[in-house]
Amino acid sequence: MKKISESAVRRLSLYLRLLQEADAAGAETISSGQLAERGGTTSAQVRKDLSLFGSFGKRGLGYSVQELLERIRAILGLQRQWRVALIGAGKLGSALFSYRDFEARGFEIRAVFDRDPEKVGTALGGLTVRADEEMDRALRDEAIEIAIVAVPGEAAQHVVDRVVKAGVGAVLNFAPVRLKVPRGVTLRNVDVTLELEGLSFALNSR
Amino acid sequence: MKKISESAVRRLSLYLRLLQEADAAGAETISSGQLAERGGTTSAQVRKDLSLFGSFGKRGLGYSVQELLERIRAILGLQRQWRVALIGAGKLGSALFSYRDFEARGFEIRAVFDRDPEKVGTALGGLTVRADEEMDRALRDEAIEIAIVAVPGEAAQHVVDRVVKAGVGAVLNFAPVRLKVPRGVTLRNVDVTLELEGLSFALNSR
DNA sequence: CGTATCTTGTGAACGATTTCACAAGCAGGG
DNA sequence: CCCTGCTTGTGAAATCGTTCACAAGATACG
User: Fold this and answer.
1) pLDDT for res A67
2) Of A147, A153, B35, B104, which residue has the fewest beta carbons closer than 10 angstroms?
């Protein structure tokens, strides 16, 4: 199987969302040009991206919204629920947790952990915040597949090491540090400061 | 002036952080190899990135931590404070606001707006949440340069249109939609669902 | 002062990604 | 049933980004 670039995967995710909108708007069919326009890319790019996985369209007609929706869902692995744990129930963690949209998109947050004894035992959504010490065992017992790390920078590497040891295969990191994970574990970072600095650079170089 | 890729800017931002750590640890000097190792890249990459802006190192020695710190700050436009507005004071907006680290890094949140009358008038940090109707005028009057958009997806395009019209030149968007901005305005997106889907893809294709 | 060691800065090679361009498939109308 | 208009899928070309490899500057030391 050929290698798929991260940017291609990002765009697939985007197409998925655009297709859901088109579907909600009642469209039966959609062309690469329409997807491109709504997604801010080009029709050739759309076709190339899709061609990495097969050929789903009809010449002269475009793509069936329904079918493409299902295909992309399958490609992205979104036809099942993923078991997710949230680590860190601070401001950001809580905000993420309350964003119930994840659930609808296949990511079920099944456990929340925090180190702060003040927070342990409090309710968050339908769950109870659990103690840090329970984490390692719980991640294993509940076969958590994805960890969202929303702890302070100093704690993040330690947390991710434990999480990996507990068998979690993918990590979404919000701490502003570069984490090391063993090969085979997938890591993505969300770093707001870094994004702001990107904006600063753009404004500055005019 | 040659074009600088977004990835190069991201890495500069990263180097800046690594340099701050090195500085805090008392290092006087640092080599491209050391930066590379800590940043998860290669020494050639580090040197190439820096060479886009000049030559700051001493052969045989490496870079002066202090000097490189200042140089990168200058490149990224971080030697001044930026005037930032936060639009949307929901869970996510509040979480972002309370993350005071931005301030220290040169991004001063000077105004918060929300459409919800319940929220308007309430205190958030040192600021008062202001009404949506005041926004356009306030952005201009206070010469806001960067807007952080943390409103629901449906509202985001409308908000960003107004923000752009009010003279804001850079937008950090948290809404899960593809926004259109005129050329000359810089847009960055933070889209957590998209990141999670990237993880799903990786887990799914094993 | 000469030699050994280190590390930068940078063309050139390489690899990856995006864009181009066009043959081929499909639908609709006359 | 053929012609027109539209759109896909995909090699080939172009562009962009990364890695290689090495000359040259800098220091340390005998």
Assistant:
1) 97
2) B104
Q: Per residue in B116-136, pLDDT tens?
A: 999 999 999 889 999 999 999
Q: Strands B146-149 and B170-173, how do they pair?
A: parallel
What is residue A1's predicted lDDT score, i.e. its pLDDT? 67
Quick one: DSSP state of residue B28? S
- Distance in angstroms: CA B61, C1' D26: 7
Chain B residues lying within 8 Å of A9, measured CB to CB = 197-198, 201
**Chain B, window 115-144: residues with a beta carbon less than 8 angstroms from a chain A beta carbon:** none
In three-state form (DSSP H/G/I as H, E/B as E, the rest C), the secondary structure along B117-185 is CCCCCCEECCEEEEEHHHHHHHHHHCCCCEEEECCCHHHHHHHHHHHHHCCCCEEEECCCCCCCCCCCC
Condensed to tens digits (0 to 9), the pLDDT of residues B63-88 reads 999 999 999 999 999 999 999 999 99
Give residue A175's pLDDT. 96
Mutate to test the interface with B, among A196, A204, A205 (most CBs of B within 10 A): A196
Q: Do B105 and A193 touch (CB under 8 A)?
A: yes
